[in-house]
UniProtKB/TrEMBL annotation:
Domain VWFA: 114-298
Name of the protein in its database record: von Willebrand factor type A
UniProt signal peptide: 1-37
Keywords: Signal
Entries under InterPro entries matching the protein: VWF_A, vWFA_dom_sf
Database matches in Pfam families: VWA_2
């Protein structure tokens, strides 16, 4: 980042977020290719960080960046506004006073989120532990937004090591009925194979994707695991699964609820998966009554992502171009962190439904001679 950008950023004026909920409505392979890293490598020296999940350029020249923020406890930053955001494209810093970008909370937009609930249905979990996990899973389903999708996977004695209780579904009633059919009667726990399957489910086409509507664009996918961490006989090892997580182009965080009435010996397996995936590890132990509070916390994290929309001034050339998204938090504190990603400079697809959205964005973020700092000032 240029020193001038760092100097000017804290002076940024606030602006209204009263803009229609523009979503990237066309299913292009428009995602960021960010590398996984530990917290220290993504700006945690200031006490917080960010992780870009997706970059969508279907409305080019407008680019939408979906990202998650977190403090040292992995909880989201709240009440971010335009004064907190900085942008650099191909090494040139945008002048925030020219208002060529805006930030919106995902919670107030129409894009959907996805979650795969992974339930350990082995006999060792039978009784109060399993009943508590079912109650917590039901609570998670009840607290989702109407457009959000949830899938349910139970770890069972099948050929694959798991049973898909429900594909991605928006109807909480249907999800609840399927959840009630799960029984804790498995003999083995192929935990790693089941989490790997949940990751594959996250890559599936969204429900109703043939319809061009904001609700059918999936902003993120997360995995919530209810287990004691014991793995028995998985084809995947913990190291292999963590390697998959590390190499994923789109992050899929794993939120683990570690609980057991017998032993905490294997909790570290869950902790490893969560920390490597930018998820959160929750030590429940034997205090089952904590589960509902924890799933509410996870739901809050999932719904607290942000979306930055900016106008690109790179001519259409069909090539990838780098940019950096930066945050200063709190405003004026001088505590800065940023992450890089890429977008493609391509013409929008010839879909009539997209044109009104592009026109509205043209009014909200009007074309200027240049979005960058004036070097002569």
């Amino acid at each position: 980042m240029s020193t001038r950008w760092l100097h000017q950023w804290p002076k940024r004026l606030s602006r209204s977020l009263a803009i229609p909920l523009f979503s990237a409505l066309f299913a292009l392979p428009a995602v960021s290719n960010t590398a996984s890293a530990d917290l220290g490598s993504i700006g945690m020296s200031g006490g917080y960080g960010l992780k870009i999940y997706k970059v969508n350029y279907a409305l080019y020249p407008f680019v939408q960046v979906y990202f998650r923020t977190f403090d040292q406890t992995m909880h989201p930053l709240i009440n971010l506004n335009d004064m907190n955001v900085g942008l650099m494209v191909k090494g040139q810093s945008y002048d925030p006073m020219k208002r060529q970008s805006l930030i919106q909370p995902l919670r107030q937009r129409s894009e959907a989120t996805r979650t795969v609930l992974v339930l350990d249905a082995s006999r060792s979990m039978a009784g109060p532990p399993f009943e508590a996990s079912l109650t917590a899973a039901a609570r998670y389903i009840d607290s989702k937004r109407p457009q959000d999708e949830v899938a349910i996977l139970s770890i069972r004695d099948t050929k694959e090591g798991y049973d898909i209780v429900s594909q991605f579904e928006r109807d909480p009633g249907a999800l609840g009925r399927r959840l009630l059919d799960v029984r804790a009667d498995g003999k083995k726990t192929r935990l790693y194979d089941s989490v790997g399957a949940a990751m594959q489910m996250c890559g599936m086409t969204s429900q109703g994707a043939i319809s061009l509507s904001p609700e059918n664009y999936v902003a993120s996918c997360s995995i919530v695991v209810f287990s004691d961490g014991l793995d028995e006989g998985s084809a995947l090892s913990r190291e292999e699964l963590n390697a998959r997580i590390t190499n994923m182009a789109i992050p899929i965080p794993v939120y683990s609820l570690a609980y057991s009435k017998v032993s905490q010996k294997y909790f570290t397996n869950l902790e490893s998966l969560s920390k490597n995936s930018f998820g959160v590890y929750y030590l429940i132990g034997e205090t089952m009554n904590k589960m509902q509070q924890v799933v509410e916390d996870i739901q809050n994290i999932v719904q607290s992502d942000y979306v930055v929309t900016f106008r690109s001034y790179v001519p259409v050339d069909g090539e990838e171009h780098s940019f950096k998204l930066g945050l200063e938090y709190p405003t004026g504190s001088g505590k800065l962190t940023y992450e890089g990603a890429k977008f493609e400079a391509i013409e929008p697809p010839p879909v009539p439904q997209l044109q009104p959205l592009i026109q509205q964005l043209n009014q909200t973020i009007p074309l200027l001679p240049s979005p960058y700092f004036d070097k002569n000032q």
